[in-house]
Amino acid sequence: xxxxxxxxxxxxxxxxREGFTEVVSDALQSATTDLRESGHITExxxxxxxxxxxxxxxxxxxxxxxxxxxxxxxxxxxxxxxxQYPKYRDVSDHELSARAVLHDMGPHLPILDKNGEASxxxxxxxxxxxxxxPQVIGMVVSRFAPSLGxxxxxxxxxxxxxxxxxxxxxxxxxxxxxxxGKLLSPAGELFNxxxxxxxxxxxxxxxxxxxxxHRNRVGSLGKWYIFRPDLSLGDRWEWRMRTGGFxxxxxxxxxxxxxxxxDYAYTPYGKAMAAERRLKFEENFIRYYQKERERGxxxxxxxxxxxxxxxxxxxxNDREQNGIxxxxxxxxxxxxxxxxxxxxxxxxxxxxxxxxxxxxRGREYYGWSxxxxxxxxxxxxxxxxxxxxxxxxxxxxxxxxxxxxxxKLNVA
Length: 412
Fold this sequence. Notes:
Elements: H1 3-6, H2 10-13, H3 16-38, H4 43-58, H5 64-81, H6 86-89, H7 93-102, E1 111-112, E2 118-119, H8 123-131, H9 133-148, H10 152-163, H11 167-170, H12 174-181, H13 186-197, H14 208-220, H15 233-240, E3 245-246, H16 249-258, H17 268-304, E4 312-316, E5 324-326, H18 329-336, H19 340-347, E6 363-364, E7 369-372, E8 375-377, H20 379-382, H21 387-409
Parallel strand pairs: 3-6
Antiparallel strand pairs: 1-2, 4-5, 4-7, 7-8
Helix pairs in contact: 3-4, 5-7, 5-13, 7-10, 7-13, 9-10, 10-13, 14-17, 15-21, 17-21
C-alpha cells in the first residue's frame, strides 16, 4: 500500500509511531488531493472526507496508533513464519501497510453518492455503517485505491482481506473461520492475526496482555463498570453475539482473550500465540484490578471521609459541560453517610436515567462513577472488601465464561 507516495520511504514506516504517522498522513493527504482533482467529489464532500480521515487518525482505539500496532504485528508474524512457510516470505511491506491503514477507517468516512456528495444521512445509517464496516470498507477501498496507487492485481485481495476482518468477533464459528481462511491472501492471514493479537500493543511485548487490559480500562473509565456481578452467563453471551443486552468491561476482555480460540487464527504462529494468551489472561486480569482497587481506595478514602472535601460523582460524557453528567448532589451526600465500601455497592444499584444511557446497538453501558482531580474511579472494583474477594469473584466469572464458551461453541 501507499507505494505511489511512500516509494523509498517504506523503511520510515518501521521507525516508530512518529515515522509511521508521518508517512501515512502524507499519503492520505495526497489521496484527498487526487480526489479533488478527479472532479468526482464536491468541495463539501471533500471536507467531510478530510474530517473523517482526521477523526480516524485520532481515534484512540481504531486510529493511527492501532494501525501501527497491526502493521508491526504483521511484520513480526511474517518474520516468525517466513523460514518455514514461503508464502508469507513473499508478502511485501506495502501489502501489510495497506491492510493496517485501511481496515478500520470505514466508520469514520461518509457515503459518497453518484454526484460526489458525501454525508451521513442520519444516525441510524451511521450506526449501520459502523456495524458493517468490514463490508463498507470495500466501497472505501474502491474510492481510494486509484489515488493510493495500489496495483490493480492487489486490489481484489485487499478488499477481501479487509471485508472479512473481525469475523472471530461477530461470527465466532470454527467452520466459518476455516472457510474464510481459504479466501484470504497470505497478507490477509498475517493482517487478520495481527489485528486480533497485536491491536493494542507490540506482538512480542511481554506486557501485551496487560496493555490490552489497560486499553480496555481507559475506554471504560467513567462510562461503564469493569465488573458487574449481577450479569449472568447468558447476559455476557448475549453481548458477545452482538445482540444487545447488558455489558461491562470484563465482557469485552473475556471475549477478546477467552473467546478467541486458537482455531480462529489463520497462521500457525497466530494459533500458538492465541493459546498462550488464553492461559495467561486470568492472572494478569486479576492482578491488574487488585492494584487498581488499592490505588482507588488510597486516593478516595481520605476524601470520602472528610466532610469538608467535595466528592464528584456522575457519568463521563465529553459532550456535556465539564465532561460529566453529574449525579444529584443530595444523592451524593446521602451516599457519603454510608461507609465507603457499602456506598460503592449502593452506587451500582442506582439506575441511570434512560436519556443518559448509550442507545448504540441497544446496549446498557452506563453506570455512575467517581471523579477526583480529573481522574475517574470505578465503584465496581472498590466494592470488594479485599483483594482476595476480588480474586474470587473474578475467577468465578472467568470459569463461568469458559463453561459457556465450551457449551455454545465447543471451545475448550
